[in-house]
Q: What sequence folds into this?
Protein backbone atom coordinates (compact mmCIF):
# COMPACT_ATOMS: atom_id res chain seq x y z
CA UNK A 1 0.00 0.00 0.00
CA UNK A 2 1.46 3.33 -1.04
CA UNK A 3 2.05 5.85 1.74
CA UNK A 4 1.88 8.82 -0.58
CA UNK A 5 0.47 10.12 -3.82
CA UNK A 6 2.45 9.24 -6.92
CA UNK A 7 4.13 11.84 -9.18
CA UNK A 8 2.30 13.99 -11.72
CA UNK A 9 0.79 11.90 -14.54
CA UNK A 10 2.38 12.55 -17.91
CA UNK A 11 -1.02 12.29 -19.58
CA UNK A 12 -4.05 13.59 -17.67
CA UNK A 13 -6.97 11.18 -17.16
CA UNK A 14 -9.47 13.72 -18.54
CA UNK A 15 -9.27 16.93 -20.49
CA UNK A 16 -11.60 19.20 -18.59
CA UNK A 17 -12.71 18.42 -15.03
CA UNK A 18 -15.60 20.34 -13.45
CA UNK A 19 -16.08 20.20 -9.69
CA UNK A 20 -19.49 21.42 -8.50
CA UNK A 21 -19.26 22.25 -4.79
CA UNK A 22 -15.95 23.07 -3.11
CA UNK A 23 -16.30 21.84 0.47
CA UNK A 24 -14.08 19.27 2.13
CA UNK A 25 -14.49 16.67 -0.63
CA UNK A 26 -14.67 18.99 -3.66
CA UNK A 27 -11.68 21.05 -2.60
CA UNK A 28 -9.68 17.90 -1.84
CA UNK A 29 -10.46 16.67 -5.36
CA UNK A 30 -9.32 20.00 -6.80
CA UNK A 31 -6.08 19.69 -4.85
CA UNK A 32 -5.29 16.12 -5.84
CA UNK A 33 -6.29 16.82 -9.46
CA UNK A 34 -3.74 19.62 -9.60
CA UNK A 35 -1.09 17.70 -7.70
CA UNK A 36 -1.31 14.59 -9.87
CA UNK A 37 -2.30 16.22 -13.17
CA UNK A 38 -5.61 14.36 -13.33
CA UNK A 39 -7.08 16.87 -15.80
CA UNK A 40 -5.63 19.25 -18.35
CA UNK A 41 -7.97 22.00 -17.18
CA UNK A 42 -9.57 22.20 -13.72
CA UNK A 43 -12.84 24.09 -13.36
CA UNK A 44 -14.76 24.76 -10.16
CA UNK A 45 -17.96 26.32 -8.95
CA UNK A 46 -19.91 26.53 -5.71
CA UNK A 47 -23.35 27.84 -4.79
CA UNK A 48 -21.77 30.16 -2.22
CA UNK A 49 -20.00 33.32 -3.41
CA UNK A 50 -17.62 33.45 -0.41
CA UNK A 51 -16.61 29.83 -1.09
CA UNK A 52 -15.95 30.65 -4.75
CA UNK A 53 -13.86 33.63 -3.71
CA UNK A 54 -11.87 31.46 -1.32
CA UNK A 55 -11.22 28.87 -4.05
CA UNK A 56 -9.83 31.67 -6.23
CA UNK A 57 -7.71 32.93 -3.32
CA UNK A 58 -6.33 29.45 -2.67
CA UNK A 59 -5.65 29.00 -6.38
CA UNK A 60 -7.34 25.61 -6.39
CA UNK A 61 -8.72 25.74 -9.97
CA UNK A 62 -7.83 27.10 -13.38
CA UNK A 63 -11.30 28.62 -13.71
CA UNK A 64 -13.94 29.41 -11.10
CA UNK A 65 -17.42 30.03 -12.49
CA UNK A 66 -20.41 31.66 -10.82
CA UNK A 67 -22.86 29.28 -12.46
CA UNK A 68 -22.77 25.51 -12.56
CA UNK A 69 -23.99 25.54 -16.18
CA UNK A 70 -20.98 27.62 -17.19
CA UNK A 71 -18.65 25.37 -15.21
CA UNK A 72 -19.69 22.17 -16.97
CA UNK A 73 -19.53 23.51 -20.53
CA UNK A 74 -17.11 21.34 -22.57
CA UNK A 75 -16.13 19.35 -19.49
CA UNK A 76 -15.60 15.62 -20.04
CA UNK A 77 -15.83 14.78 -16.33
CA UNK A 78 -18.24 16.54 -13.99
CA UNK A 79 -18.31 15.59 -10.30
CA UNK A 80 -21.14 16.83 -8.11
CA UNK A 81 -19.71 17.50 -4.63
CA UNK A 82 -22.63 19.28 -2.98
CA UNK A 83 -24.72 17.84 -0.13
CA UNK A 84 -26.81 15.04 -1.62
CA UNK A 85 -30.06 16.98 -1.24
CA UNK A 86 -28.81 19.57 -3.74
CA UNK A 87 -27.90 17.19 -6.57
CA UNK A 88 -31.24 17.04 -8.41
CA UNK A 89 -31.46 20.82 -8.72
CA UNK A 90 -27.85 21.00 -9.89
CA UNK A 91 -28.51 18.27 -12.47
CA UNK A 92 -31.50 20.20 -13.79
CA UNK A 93 -29.39 23.33 -14.06
CA UNK A 94 -26.40 21.79 -15.84
CA UNK A 95 -28.31 19.39 -18.12
CA UNK A 96 -28.61 21.73 -21.13
CA UNK A 97 -24.89 22.59 -20.96
CA UNK A 98 -23.54 19.02 -20.84
CA UNK A 99 -21.53 17.78 -23.81
CA UNK A 100 -22.26 14.48 -25.51
CA UNK A 101 -19.91 11.80 -24.19
CA UNK A 102 -19.31 13.61 -20.89
CA UNK A 103 -19.30 11.65 -17.64
CA UNK A 104 -21.35 12.95 -14.70
CA UNK A 105 -20.59 11.51 -11.29
CA UNK A 106 -21.03 12.53 -7.65
CA UNK A 107 -19.52 11.86 -4.22
CA UNK A 108 -22.66 11.50 -2.12
CA UNK A 109 -22.89 9.10 0.83
CA UNK A 110 -26.27 7.89 -0.45
CA UNK A 111 -26.64 6.37 -3.88
CA UNK A 112 -30.13 4.93 -4.46
CA UNK A 113 -32.29 7.99 -3.83
CA UNK A 114 -29.77 10.35 -5.36
CA UNK A 115 -29.23 8.29 -8.48
CA UNK A 116 -32.98 8.19 -9.12
CA UNK A 117 -33.29 11.91 -8.49
CA UNK A 118 -30.45 12.86 -10.82
CA UNK A 119 -30.81 10.30 -13.65
CA UNK A 120 -33.95 11.81 -15.25
CA UNK A 121 -32.11 15.06 -15.91
CA UNK A 122 -29.11 13.47 -17.62
CA UNK A 123 -29.37 13.90 -21.42
CA UNK A 124 -28.99 10.97 -23.79
CA UNK A 125 -25.34 10.51 -24.74
CA UNK A 126 -24.09 11.66 -21.33
CA UNK A 127 -22.83 8.93 -18.95
CA UNK A 128 -24.13 9.11 -15.41
CA UNK A 129 -22.09 6.97 -13.00
CA UNK A 130 -22.70 7.64 -9.30
CA UNK A 131 -19.70 7.37 -6.98
CA UNK A 132 -18.80 7.65 -3.31
CA UNK A 133 -15.31 8.07 -1.88
CA UNK A 134 -15.47 6.64 1.66
CA UNK A 135 -13.23 9.32 3.13
CA UNK A 136 -13.61 12.50 5.11
CA UNK A 137 -12.91 14.35 8.30
CA UNK A 138 -15.25 16.15 10.69
CA UNK A 139 -14.27 19.48 9.13
CA UNK A 140 -15.98 21.33 6.30
CA UNK A 141 -15.31 23.95 3.65
CA UNK A 142 -12.61 24.70 1.06
CA UNK A 143 -9.91 25.24 3.67
CA UNK A 144 -10.47 21.81 5.24
CA UNK A 145 -9.55 19.85 2.10
CA UNK A 146 -6.17 18.28 1.38
CA UNK A 147 -4.81 16.27 -1.54
CA UNK A 148 -4.24 12.99 0.33
CA UNK A 149 -7.80 12.70 1.66
CA UNK A 150 -8.56 9.79 -0.69
CA UNK A 151 -5.23 8.02 -0.37
CA UNK A 152 -5.73 4.31 0.43
CA UNK A 153 -9.44 4.88 1.01
CA UNK A 154 -12.12 3.08 -1.00
CA UNK A 155 -14.18 4.73 -3.68
CA UNK A 156 -17.41 2.90 -4.50
CA UNK A 157 -18.89 3.27 -7.97
CA UNK A 158 -22.50 2.24 -8.64
CA UNK A 159 -22.86 2.19 -12.44
CA UNK A 160 -26.45 1.61 -13.58
CA UNK A 161 -27.25 -1.46 -15.68
CA UNK A 162 -25.97 -0.94 -19.21
CA UNK A 163 -23.48 1.77 -18.26
CA UNK A 164 -20.77 2.39 -20.84
CA UNK A 165 -17.75 0.29 -19.80
CA UNK A 166 -15.32 2.84 -21.16
CA UNK A 167 -16.88 5.62 -19.08
CA UNK A 168 -16.73 3.43 -15.95
CA UNK A 169 -13.09 2.72 -16.74
CA UNK A 170 -12.25 6.40 -17.08
CA UNK A 171 -13.94 7.28 -13.79
CA UNK A 172 -12.22 4.37 -12.11
CA UNK A 173 -8.84 5.48 -13.48
CA UNK A 174 -9.53 8.97 -12.15
CA UNK A 175 -10.16 7.74 -8.59
CA UNK A 176 -7.28 5.31 -8.72
CA UNK A 177 -4.97 8.16 -9.71
CA UNK A 178 -6.42 10.18 -6.80
CA UNK A 179 -5.04 7.44 -4.52
CA UNK A 180 -8.19 5.37 -3.96
CA UNK A 181 -9.04 1.71 -4.30
CA UNK A 182 -12.13 1.36 -6.47
CA UNK A 183 -14.99 -1.09 -5.93
CA UNK A 184 -18.20 -1.47 -7.89
CA UNK A 185 -21.58 -2.50 -6.44
CA UNK A 186 -25.29 -1.79 -6.80
CA UNK A 187 -26.84 1.37 -5.32
CA UNK A 188 -28.99 -0.73 -2.98
CA UNK A 189 -26.08 -2.67 -1.60
CA UNK A 190 -24.01 0.48 -1.21
CA UNK A 191 -26.74 2.12 0.82
CA UNK A 192 -26.99 -0.84 3.18
CA UNK A 193 -23.21 -1.13 3.60
CA UNK A 194 -22.93 2.58 4.33
CA UNK A 195 -25.88 2.52 6.72
CA UNK A 196 -23.91 0.22 9.02
CA UNK A 197 -20.38 1.53 8.42
CA UNK A 198 -21.20 5.21 8.43
CA UNK A 199 -24.78 6.45 8.71
CA UNK A 200 -25.97 4.71 11.87
CA UNK A 201 -22.60 5.28 13.61
CA UNK A 202 -23.02 8.99 12.90
CA UNK A 203 -26.61 8.93 14.10
CA UNK A 204 -25.79 7.33 17.44
CA UNK A 205 -22.84 9.65 17.91
CA UNK A 206 -25.08 12.67 17.35
CA UNK A 207 -27.61 11.09 19.65
CA UNK A 208 -25.33 10.41 22.63
CA UNK A 209 -23.89 13.90 22.41
CA UNK A 210 -27.44 15.25 22.43
CA UNK A 211 -28.42 13.07 25.39
CA UNK A 212 -25.39 14.32 27.33
CA UNK A 213 -26.21 17.93 26.57
CA UNK A 214 -29.71 17.50 27.96
CA UNK A 215 -28.97 15.93 31.37
CA UNK A 216 -29.97 18.01 34.34
CA UNK A 217 -28.00 16.13 37.00
CA UNK A 218 -24.70 16.29 35.17
CA UNK A 219 -23.61 19.74 34.10
CA UNK A 220 -22.35 20.51 30.63
CA UNK A 221 -18.99 21.42 32.12
CA UNK A 222 -18.70 18.01 33.76
CA UNK A 223 -19.46 16.25 30.48
CA UNK A 224 -16.74 18.29 28.83
CA UNK A 225 -14.19 17.87 31.65
CA UNK A 226 -14.54 14.12 31.97
CA UNK A 227 -14.96 13.40 28.26
CA UNK A 228 -11.65 11.50 28.06
CA UNK A 229 -13.45 8.41 29.40
CA UNK A 230 -14.81 7.67 25.91
CA UNK A 231 -17.37 10.38 25.19
CA UNK A 232 -14.98 12.67 23.31
CA UNK A 233 -14.51 10.02 20.58
CA UNK A 234 -18.17 10.45 19.69
CA UNK A 235 -17.99 14.21 19.58
CA UNK A 236 -15.66 14.02 16.60
CA UNK A 237 -18.17 12.56 14.18
CA UNK A 238 -20.96 14.51 15.86
CA UNK A 239 -19.10 17.64 14.72
CA UNK A 240 -19.54 16.79 11.03
CA UNK A 241 -21.37 18.97 8.52
CA UNK A 242 -25.05 19.21 9.63
CA UNK A 243 -26.44 19.87 6.15
CA UNK A 244 -24.65 16.92 4.62
CA UNK A 245 -25.84 14.61 7.37
CA UNK A 246 -29.43 15.81 7.37
CA UNK A 247 -29.53 14.98 3.66
CA UNK A 248 -27.97 11.56 4.21
CA UNK A 249 -30.67 10.54 6.67
CA UNK A 250 -33.50 11.94 4.59
CA UNK A 251 -32.21 10.10 1.51
CA UNK A 252 -31.21 6.74 2.98
CA UNK A 253 -34.26 6.31 5.16
CA UNK A 254 -35.00 2.64 4.53
CA UNK A 255 -31.53 1.23 5.08
CA UNK A 256 -30.92 3.49 8.09
CA UNK A 257 -34.21 2.45 9.73
CA UNK A 258 -33.43 -1.21 9.03
CA UNK A 259 -29.95 -1.06 10.61
CA UNK A 260 -31.19 1.15 13.43
CA UNK A 261 -33.85 -1.46 14.20
CA UNK A 262 -31.17 -4.11 14.56
CA UNK A 263 -28.99 -1.81 16.63
CA UNK A 264 -31.74 -1.07 19.15
CA UNK A 265 -32.76 -4.73 19.26
CA UNK A 266 -29.17 -5.67 20.13
CA UNK A 267 -28.98 -2.81 22.61
CA UNK A 268 -32.09 -4.06 24.37
CA UNK A 269 -30.45 -7.46 24.73
CA UNK A 270 -27.36 -5.81 26.26
CA UNK A 271 -29.54 -3.72 28.57
CA UNK A 272 -31.22 -6.90 29.75
CA UNK A 273 -27.83 -8.53 30.42
CA UNK A 274 -26.89 -5.56 32.58
CA UNK A 275 -30.20 -5.59 34.45
CA UNK A 276 -29.95 -9.32 35.17
CA UNK A 277 -26.23 -9.34 35.84
CA UNK A 278 -25.30 -11.62 32.94
CA UNK A 279 -21.53 -11.09 33.12
CA UNK A 280 -20.75 -13.99 30.77
CA UNK A 281 -22.97 -12.57 28.05
CA UNK A 282 -21.33 -9.14 28.35
CA UNK A 283 -17.85 -10.66 28.36
CA UNK A 284 -18.60 -12.73 25.25
CA UNK A 285 -19.65 -9.67 23.24
CA UNK A 286 -16.79 -7.51 24.53
CA UNK A 287 -14.28 -10.14 23.42
CA UNK A 288 -15.79 -10.67 19.98
CA UNK A 289 -15.65 -6.97 19.09
CA UNK A 290 -11.87 -6.78 19.57
CA UNK A 291 -11.17 -8.89 16.48
CA UNK A 292 -12.92 -6.49 14.14
CA UNK A 293 -10.63 -3.63 15.07
CA UNK A 294 -7.61 -5.85 14.62
CA UNK A 295 -8.76 -6.65 11.05
CA UNK A 296 -9.35 -2.98 10.24
CA UNK A 297 -5.82 -2.19 11.37
CA UNK A 298 -4.42 -5.15 9.42
CA UNK A 299 -5.87 -3.98 6.10
CA UNK A 300 -4.49 -0.49 6.65
CA UNK A 301 -7.80 1.33 7.17
CA UNK A 302 -6.76 2.38 10.69
CA UNK A 303 -3.57 3.04 12.61
CA UNK A 304 -2.58 0.85 15.54
CA UNK A 305 -1.36 3.75 17.66
CA UNK A 306 -3.21 3.58 21.03
CA UNK A 307 -5.92 6.17 21.72
CA UNK A 308 -5.69 7.50 18.14
CA UNK A 309 -2.18 8.71 18.98
CA UNK A 310 -3.47 11.32 21.42
CA UNK A 311 -0.62 10.51 23.81
CA UNK A 312 3.01 10.56 23.05
CA UNK A 313 3.68 6.92 23.81
CA UNK A 314 6.69 6.91 26.05
CA UNK A 315 7.29 3.50 27.58
CA UNK A 316 9.21 3.68 30.86
CA UNK B 1 -1.54 23.60 30.99
CA UNK B 2 1.74 21.75 31.13
CA UNK B 3 2.66 19.67 28.08
CA UNK B 4 4.92 17.35 30.01
CA UNK B 5 5.61 15.83 33.39
CA UNK B 6 7.68 17.96 35.74
CA UNK B 7 11.15 16.96 37.03
CA UNK B 8 11.75 14.42 39.80
CA UNK B 9 10.38 15.62 43.16
CA UNK B 10 13.07 16.30 45.72
CA UNK B 11 10.89 14.83 48.43
CA UNK B 12 8.62 11.88 47.51
CA UNK B 13 4.88 12.24 48.25
CA UNK B 14 4.81 8.90 50.12
CA UNK B 15 7.38 6.55 51.57
CA UNK B 16 6.23 3.19 50.29
CA UNK B 17 3.76 2.86 47.42
CA UNK B 18 2.08 -0.47 46.70
CA UNK B 19 0.36 -1.01 43.34
CA UNK B 20 -1.98 -4.02 43.23
CA UNK B 21 -2.57 -4.96 39.60
CA UNK B 22 -0.13 -3.98 36.84
CA UNK B 23 -2.26 -3.55 33.72
CA UNK B 24 -2.52 -0.35 31.69
CA UNK B 25 -3.34 1.86 34.69
CA UNK B 26 -1.20 0.14 37.35
CA UNK B 27 1.87 -0.03 35.15
CA UNK B 28 1.42 3.60 34.10
CA UNK B 29 1.30 4.55 37.79
CA UNK B 30 4.50 2.58 38.41
CA UNK B 31 6.17 4.40 35.55
CA UNK B 32 5.13 7.90 36.58
CA UNK B 33 5.96 7.13 40.24
CA UNK B 34 9.49 6.24 39.22
CA UNK B 35 9.84 9.08 36.76
CA UNK B 36 8.67 11.76 39.19
CA UNK B 37 9.91 10.20 42.43
CA UNK B 38 6.40 9.96 43.88
CA UNK B 39 7.47 7.32 46.44
CA UNK B 40 10.74 6.41 48.12
CA UNK B 41 10.06 2.73 47.48
CA UNK B 42 7.80 1.31 44.76
CA UNK B 43 6.22 -2.08 45.32
CA UNK B 44 4.04 -4.02 42.88
CA UNK B 45 2.02 -7.20 42.63
CA UNK B 46 -0.42 -8.78 40.21
CA UNK B 47 -2.66 -11.85 40.36
CA UNK B 48 -1.00 -13.16 37.18
CA UNK B 49 2.49 -14.69 37.39
CA UNK B 50 3.40 -13.79 33.77
CA UNK B 51 2.40 -10.17 34.44
CA UNK B 52 4.57 -10.10 37.58
CA UNK B 53 7.48 -11.55 35.60
CA UNK B 54 7.01 -8.88 32.93
CA UNK B 55 6.99 -6.10 35.56
CA UNK B 56 10.32 -7.45 36.85
CA UNK B 57 11.68 -7.62 33.30
CA UNK B 58 10.61 -4.04 32.57
CA UNK B 59 12.12 -2.91 35.87
CA UNK B 60 8.96 -1.03 36.79
CA UNK B 61 9.15 -1.53 40.59
CA UNK B 62 11.71 -1.82 43.36
CA UNK B 63 9.99 -4.95 44.66
CA UNK B 64 7.53 -7.33 43.00
CA UNK B 65 5.66 -9.62 45.38
CA UNK B 66 3.71 -12.77 44.64
CA UNK B 67 1.07 -11.99 47.24
CA UNK B 68 -0.92 -8.80 47.68
CA UNK B 69 -0.62 -9.13 51.48
CA UNK B 70 3.18 -9.09 51.22
CA UNK B 71 3.08 -6.16 48.82
CA UNK B 72 1.10 -3.89 51.16
CA UNK B 73 3.16 -4.54 54.32
CA UNK B 74 4.49 -1.21 55.64
CA UNK B 75 3.12 0.67 52.63
CA UNK B 76 1.68 4.10 53.36
CA UNK B 77 -0.21 4.31 50.05
CA UNK B 78 -1.87 1.28 48.47
CA UNK B 79 -3.67 1.65 45.13
CA UNK B 80 -5.90 -1.15 43.87
CA UNK B 81 -5.57 -1.27 40.09
CA UNK B 82 -7.38 -4.53 39.32
CA UNK B 83 -10.72 -4.76 37.46
CA UNK B 84 -13.37 -3.43 39.87
CA UNK B 85 -14.93 -6.87 40.38
CA UNK B 86 -11.73 -8.09 42.04
CA UNK B 87 -11.40 -5.33 44.63
CA UNK B 88 -13.44 -6.84 47.48
CA UNK B 89 -11.42 -10.08 47.44
CA UNK B 90 -8.17 -8.12 47.34
CA UNK B 91 -9.31 -5.95 50.25
CA UNK B 92 -10.12 -9.07 52.29
CA UNK B 93 -6.68 -10.47 51.52
CA UNK B 94 -4.65 -7.37 52.35
CA UNK B 95 -6.68 -6.19 55.37
CA UNK B 96 -4.62 -8.00 58.05
CA UNK B 97 -1.35 -6.69 56.58
CA UNK B 98 -2.31 -2.99 56.38
CA UNK B 99 -0.45 -0.56 58.64
CA UNK B 100 -2.27 1.96 60.82
CA UNK B 101 -2.36 5.32 59.08
CA UNK B 102 -2.00 3.83 55.61
CA UNK B 103 -4.16 5.13 52.74
CA UNK B 104 -5.99 2.63 50.55
CA UNK B 105 -7.33 3.89 47.23
CA UNK B 106 -8.31 2.44 43.87
CA UNK B 107 -8.65 3.46 40.22
CA UNK B 108 -11.97 1.84 39.32
CA UNK B 109 -14.42 3.39 36.86
CA UNK B 110 -17.25 2.68 39.30
CA UNK B 111 -17.25 4.09 42.80
CA UNK B 112 -20.52 3.42 44.65
CA UNK B 113 -20.71 -0.37 44.45
CA UNK B 114 -16.97 -0.79 44.81
CA UNK B 115 -16.66 1.53 47.78
CA UNK B 116 -19.39 -0.37 49.62
CA UNK B 117 -17.79 -3.70 48.74
CA UNK B 118 -14.32 -2.70 49.90
CA UNK B 119 -15.06 -0.48 52.92
CA UNK B 120 -16.13 -3.28 55.33
CA UNK B 121 -12.71 -4.91 55.00
CA UNK B 122 -10.70 -1.77 55.77
CA UNK B 123 -9.39 -1.89 59.37
CA UNK B 124 -9.92 1.00 61.81
CA UNK B 125 -7.06 3.47 61.52
CA UNK B 126 -6.61 2.88 57.78
CA UNK B 127 -7.92 5.57 55.42
CA UNK B 128 -10.01 4.37 52.51
CA UNK B 129 -10.40 7.01 49.81
CA UNK B 130 -11.72 5.75 46.46
CA UNK B 131 -10.33 7.37 43.32
CA UNK B 132 -10.71 7.25 39.57
CA UNK B 133 -8.28 8.66 37.00
CA UNK B 134 -10.34 9.42 33.89
CA UNK B 135 -7.65 8.25 31.49
CA UNK B 136 -6.84 5.21 29.45
CA UNK B 137 -6.35 3.74 26.02
CA UNK B 138 -7.94 0.71 24.36
CA UNK B 139 -4.85 -1.36 25.17
CA UNK B 140 -4.23 -3.54 28.20
CA UNK B 141 -1.39 -5.08 30.17
CA UNK B 142 1.94 -3.94 31.65
CA UNK B 143 3.46 -3.16 28.26
CA UNK B 144 0.62 -0.81 27.33
CA UNK B 145 1.30 1.64 30.18
CA UNK B 146 3.27 4.88 29.87
CA UNK B 147 4.18 7.60 32.37
CA UNK B 148 2.21 10.43 30.77
CA UNK B 149 -1.13 8.59 30.74
CA UNK B 150 -2.54 10.83 33.49
CA UNK B 151 -1.05 14.09 32.27
CA UNK B 152 -3.73 16.80 32.06
CA UNK B 153 -6.46 14.24 32.67
CA UNK B 154 -8.84 14.47 35.62
CA UNK B 155 -8.64 12.25 38.66
CA UNK B 156 -11.86 12.09 40.68
CA UNK B 157 -11.65 11.32 44.41
CA UNK B 158 -14.76 10.26 46.31
CA UNK B 159 -13.79 10.49 50.01
CA UNK B 160 -16.49 9.13 52.33
CA UNK B 161 -18.11 11.45 54.87
CA UNK B 162 -15.68 12.06 57.72
CA UNK B 163 -12.58 11.09 55.73
CA UNK B 164 -9.32 12.33 57.21
CA UNK B 165 -8.49 15.63 55.45
CA UNK B 166 -4.77 14.98 55.66
CA UNK B 167 -5.13 11.60 53.91
CA UNK B 168 -7.25 13.19 51.17
CA UNK B 169 -4.60 15.86 50.78
CA UNK B 170 -1.81 13.29 50.43
CA UNK B 171 -3.72 11.29 47.82
CA UNK B 172 -4.56 14.49 45.98
CA UNK B 173 -0.88 15.56 46.04
CA UNK B 174 0.05 12.14 44.65
CA UNK B 175 -2.28 12.47 41.65
CA UNK B 176 -1.33 16.08 41.06
CA UNK B 177 2.31 15.07 40.92
CA UNK B 178 1.34 12.30 38.47
CA UNK B 179 0.15 15.09 36.17
CA UNK B 180 -3.59 15.03 36.89
CA UNK B 181 -6.14 17.63 37.87
CA UNK B 182 -7.98 16.46 40.97
CA UNK B 183 -11.69 16.88 41.64
CA UNK B 184 -13.73 15.62 44.59
CA UNK B 185 -17.36 14.48 44.47
CA UNK B 186 -19.73 11.88 45.94
CA UNK B 187 -19.66 8.27 44.72
CA UNK B 188 -23.23 8.59 43.47
CA UNK B 189 -22.53 11.67 41.41
CA UNK B 190 -19.33 10.14 40.04
CA UNK B 191 -21.20 7.08 38.85
CA UNK B 192 -23.80 9.17 37.03
CA UNK B 193 -21.19 11.43 35.41
CA UNK B 194 -19.18 8.43 34.25
CA UNK B 195 -22.27 6.62 32.99
CA UNK B 196 -22.76 9.39 30.42
CA UNK B 197 -19.14 10.30 29.70
CA UNK B 198 -17.76 6.79 29.57
CA UNK B 199 -19.92 3.76 30.36
CA UNK B 200 -22.84 4.24 27.97
CA UNK B 201 -20.50 5.43 25.17
CA UNK B 202 -18.56 2.18 25.58
CA UNK B 203 -21.76 0.16 25.65
CA UNK B 204 -23.10 1.60 22.41
CA UNK B 205 -19.70 1.22 20.76
CA UNK B 206 -19.59 -2.45 21.71
CA UNK B 207 -23.17 -2.75 20.55
CA UNK B 208 -22.76 -1.24 17.07
CA UNK B 209 -19.67 -3.34 16.44
CA UNK B 210 -21.66 -6.41 17.46
CA UNK B 211 -24.59 -5.43 15.22
CA UNK B 212 -22.21 -5.00 12.28
CA UNK B 213 -20.62 -8.39 12.90
CA UNK B 214 -24.02 -10.08 12.79
CA UNK B 215 -25.40 -8.71 9.51
CA UNK B 216 -26.01 -11.30 6.85
CA UNK B 217 -26.41 -8.94 3.89
CA UNK B 218 -23.19 -7.07 4.50
CA UNK B 219 -20.10 -9.23 4.78
CA UNK B 220 -17.56 -8.82 7.56
CA UNK B 221 -14.97 -7.89 4.96
CA UNK B 222 -17.16 -5.06 3.66
CA UNK B 223 -17.62 -3.68 7.17
CA UNK B 224 -13.87 -3.71 7.60
CA UNK B 225 -13.06 -2.26 4.18
CA UNK B 226 -15.48 0.63 4.36
CA UNK B 227 -15.00 1.38 8.05
CA UNK B 228 -13.42 4.78 7.36
CA UNK B 229 -16.93 6.23 7.02
CA UNK B 230 -17.24 6.45 10.81
CA UNK B 231 -17.48 2.89 12.05
CA UNK B 232 -13.78 2.47 12.80
CA UNK B 233 -13.97 5.22 15.46
CA UNK B 234 -16.27 2.96 17.47
CA UNK B 235 -14.04 -0.06 17.13
CA UNK B 236 -11.37 1.67 19.18
CA UNK B 237 -13.28 1.75 22.43
CA UNK B 238 -14.93 -1.56 21.57
CA UNK B 239 -11.41 -3.04 21.70
CA UNK B 240 -11.00 -2.19 25.40
CA UNK B 241 -10.39 -4.75 28.13
CA UNK B 242 -13.46 -7.07 28.28
CA UNK B 243 -13.03 -8.03 31.95
CA UNK B 244 -12.75 -4.45 33.09
CA UNK B 245 -15.83 -3.45 31.14
CA UNK B 246 -17.94 -6.42 32.20
CA UNK B 247 -17.24 -5.41 35.79
CA UNK B 248 -18.09 -1.77 35.12
CA UNK B 249 -21.54 -2.64 33.80
CA UNK B 250 -22.28 -5.14 36.54
CA UNK B 251 -21.26 -2.61 39.19
CA UNK B 252 -22.82 0.58 37.84
CA UNK B 253 -26.12 -0.95 36.83
CA UNK B 254 -28.50 1.75 38.05
CA UNK B 255 -26.76 4.76 36.54
CA UNK B 256 -26.06 2.94 33.27
CA UNK B 257 -29.68 1.83 32.91
CA UNK B 258 -30.86 5.35 33.68
CA UNK B 259 -28.63 6.98 31.05
CA UNK B 260 -29.30 4.18 28.58
CA UNK B 261 -33.03 4.82 29.00
CA UNK B 262 -32.55 8.45 28.06
CA UNK B 263 -30.28 7.52 25.15
CA UNK B 264 -32.84 5.13 23.62
CA UNK B 265 -35.64 7.62 24.22
CA UNK B 266 -33.69 10.27 22.33
CA UNK B 267 -32.78 7.76 19.63
CA UNK B 268 -36.46 6.91 19.13
CA UNK B 269 -37.16 10.59 18.60
CA UNK B 270 -34.39 10.76 15.99
CA UNK B 271 -35.68 7.61 14.32
CA UNK B 272 -39.10 9.19 14.10
CA UNK B 273 -37.60 12.33 12.52
CA UNK B 274 -35.97 10.17 9.87
CA UNK B 275 -39.15 8.19 9.22
CA UNK B 276 -41.24 11.32 8.84
CA UNK B 277 -38.60 13.33 6.98
CA UNK B 278 -38.19 16.03 9.62
CA UNK B 279 -35.06 17.63 8.18
CA UNK B 280 -35.27 20.70 10.40
CA UNK B 281 -35.30 18.57 13.54
CA UNK B 282 -32.26 16.61 12.38
CA UNK B 283 -30.43 19.77 11.37
CA UNK B 284 -31.11 21.39 14.74
CA UNK B 285 -29.58 18.48 16.66
CA UNK B 286 -26.62 18.12 14.30
CA UNK B 287 -25.78 21.79 14.78
CA UNK B 288 -26.09 21.77 18.55
CA UNK B 289 -23.67 18.85 18.98
CA UNK B 290 -20.82 20.71 17.26
CA UNK B 291 -20.42 23.16 20.14
CA UNK B 292 -19.69 20.45 22.68
CA UNK B 293 -16.66 19.22 20.76
CA UNK B 294 -15.42 22.78 20.43
CA UNK B 295 -15.56 23.17 24.23
CA UNK B 296 -13.73 19.88 24.81
CA UNK B 297 -10.95 21.05 22.50
CA UNK B 298 -10.87 24.46 24.18
CA UNK B 299 -10.24 23.05 27.64
CA UNK B 300 -7.44 20.84 26.32
CA UNK B 301 -9.17 17.47 26.72
CA UNK B 302 -8.96 16.82 22.99
CA UNK B 303 -6.78 17.81 20.07
CA UNK B 304 -8.19 19.88 17.20
CA UNK B 305 -6.35 17.91 14.52
CA UNK B 306 -8.95 16.71 11.97
CA UNK B 307 -9.84 12.99 11.95
CA UNK B 308 -7.76 12.38 15.10
CA UNK B 309 -4.67 13.21 13.03
CA UNK B 310 -5.05 10.10 10.88
CA UNK B 311 -4.08 12.09 7.80
CA UNK B 312 -1.02 14.13 7.33
CA UNK B 313 -2.73 17.44 6.81
CA UNK B 314 -1.19 18.87 3.69
CA UNK B 315 -3.07 21.91 2.48
CA UNK B 316 -2.72 22.54 -1.25
A:
Amino acid sequence: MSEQLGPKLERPVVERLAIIGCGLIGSSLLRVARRRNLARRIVATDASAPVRARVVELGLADEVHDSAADAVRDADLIILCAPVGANAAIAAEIAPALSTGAIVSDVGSVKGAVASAVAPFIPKGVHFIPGHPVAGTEQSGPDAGFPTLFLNRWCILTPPAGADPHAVETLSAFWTAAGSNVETMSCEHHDLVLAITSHVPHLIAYNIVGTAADLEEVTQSEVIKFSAGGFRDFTRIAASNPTMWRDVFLNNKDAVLEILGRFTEDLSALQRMIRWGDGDGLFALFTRTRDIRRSIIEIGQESDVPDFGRHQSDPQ
